[in-house]
Design a protein that fits this description.
This protein is an alpha/beta fold. It has 2 domains: about 25-225 and about 265-290, NAD(P)-binding Rossmann-like Domain (Rossmann fold, 3-Layer(aba) Sandwich), CATH 3.40.50.720; about 225-260 and about 295-330 and about 355-405, no CATH class. It has helices spanning about 10-25, 35-40, 55-70, 85-90, 110-115, 135-145, 180-190, 190-210, 230-240, 265-280, 300-310, 340-345, 350-370, 375-390, 395-405, and strands spanning about 50, 70-75, 95, 120-125, 145-155, 215-220, 220-225, 250-255, 265, 285-290, 315-320. It is globular and about 60 Å long. About 40% of the residues are buried. Bound molecules: 2-acetamido-2-deoxy-beta-D-glucopyranose. 2-acetamido-2-deoxy-beta-D-glucopyranose binds near residues 163, 165, 178 and 183. Pfam families: Epimerase (PF01370).
């Protein structure tokens, strides 16, 4: 799924685009989803939520939380099931298959649904998979008269195409494009991902002003947690665990050495989405940054992993080369200020420490006690290690066997 050619900063940006696009369509977190019988009894009184995405990393965590809170969930995506979402999400939701790169007008699943369920209304749309303005326009064309609220999952990369005029943490009001059109265009072509996400935000505001639908935009930094489809956290973990079998020394680019980074926990995104849905109207028509309170540097993060695994005999290399490998952060502008959402929603993010332990444990278990649902994810991550972390691909398999007792089955041979 994720194939990485040469890894360098510029290249990694485009890989991230792919990863982010993939991961938006993906998702889940294990937990007790209510059984179907119990849910059907409540059908009449339940509130309806439509989710674009909902099978990816944050999306499936969000769907599960909504199900546990007795919402009726319709998800719209390309139909892939990642990690174990085929068992944790799929049986409990209505799924419509649409590709948002095509016009939704041409998506027969959605057309038929809208036609058959002519009276259905949605308390909210949660949009994990709009990357450009037209996708928002499309959603309003199809569903605008049936929705009250629209929660758009955006990104801190919108600030990359803006004119931030101070050196503190980036705040919501910094999302202002430069006046100068030449500067705008230059930024947009350098940061097309951020440009597209901001264009979608702008279109959402326009549509909401026109229709009276209420919106919230959530701007997320790099998302961490179990079941990440970009595999970035997992790769750092394996880089350390299999270091004796890989050639690439564990390193951090010099320019990132002391730089604090913003992250957000996938479960926290689900939490905030639910809080937004259950809040009254006055918190709407605004953007909110979401992040952990803690802002670790990349070297602190790697140190923490080393400690967790009891490794005391290696030093992290400071890499001065211009194309030094790093998988975080995906933005250049620096960390964000997420105090507004904590204040307005009276919300406490999970502590970095707690999220760290849970995430590490999850990825350790993927090779220690593998589930059949995770075999695709395993193969992807093995492939990336083989291509980018060593010139002896076989050593990766040796390492996995020695470290985790994990063996690829012959028919799975890469
Ligand atoms: C950025 O914002 C500042 C302060 O508002 C303004 O003076 C400056 O002209 C802006 N720069 C661009 C390129 O629009």
């Amino acid at each position: 799924m994720i194939t990485m050619p040469e890894i360098n900063w510029g290249m990694f940006n485009s890989i991230l685009l792919v990863c982010m696009y993939m991961s938006s369509e993906i998702d889940k977190v294990c937990s007790n989803v209510p059984d179907r019988g119990a849910r059907e009894n409540l059908q009449e009184t339940k509130r309806n939520i439509l989710i674009f995405g909902g099978n990816g990393f944050m999306g499936s965590a969000t769907v599960e939380k909504l199900l546990r809170n007795n919402y009726n969930v319709v998800i719209v995506n390309r139909g892939n099931w990642y990690w174990d979402s085929a068992t944790t999400v799929k049986p409990f939701v209505k799924q419509l298959k649409c590709d948002r790169m095509q016009s939704l007008q041409r998506c027969s699943d959605l057309q038929n649904f809208v036609w058959e369920e002519e009276s259905i209304k949605f308390d909210a749309i949660i949009d994990f998979s709009a990357y450009q303005g037209f996708q928002i326009t499309d959603a309003f064309d199809m569903l605008g008269s049936r929705i009250k609220r629209y929660i758009y999952i955006s990104s801190d990369s919108v600030y990359e195409v803006c004119n931030k005029t101070h050196s503190e943490l980036t705040r919501e009001e910094d999302a202002v494009r430069p006046h100068d059109l030449d500067v705008q265009q230059k930024l947009n072509s350098q940061e097309s991902y951020g440009h597209g996400k901001l264009e979608a935000e702008e279109e959402l505001q326009r549509q909401c002003a026109k229709t009276g639908v209420l919106y919230i935009t959530l701007r997320l930094p790099d998302v961490v947690g179990p079941r990440d489809n970009t595999r970035r956290w997992w790769l750092y973990q394996l880089w350390i665990q299999l270091r004796g079998y890989l050639e690439r020394p564990i390193s951090v680019p010099d320019n990132l050495w002391d730089r604090p980074l913003s992250f957000v926990y996938a479960d926290d995104v689900a939490d905030v989405v639910l809080k937004c849905i259950e809040s009254d109207d006055k918190i709407y028509n605004q953007a909110y940054n979401l992040a952990f309170v803690e802002k670790p540097t990349l070297s602190e993060f790697i140190h923490q992993l080393l400690q967790e695994f009891g490794v005391h005999d290696i030093e992290i290399k400071r890499d001065f080369s211009p194309d030094a490998l790093h998988l975080y952060p995906s933005v250049k502008l620096g960390p964000i200020d997420a105090s507004k959402v904590r204040r307005v929603l009276d919300w406490q993010p999970t502590s970095w420490k707690q999220a760290f332990s849970k995430t590490v444990k999850f990825y350790e278990d993927v090779f220690k006690t593998p589930l059949p649902e995770f075999s695709q994810a395993q193969k992807d991550v093995i492939r990336i290690l083989q291509v980018h972390f060593t010139s002896s691909p076989f050593r990766v398999l040796e390492g996995l066997k020695d470290k985790y007792g994990f063996q690829l089955e012959i028919r799975d041979e890469l």
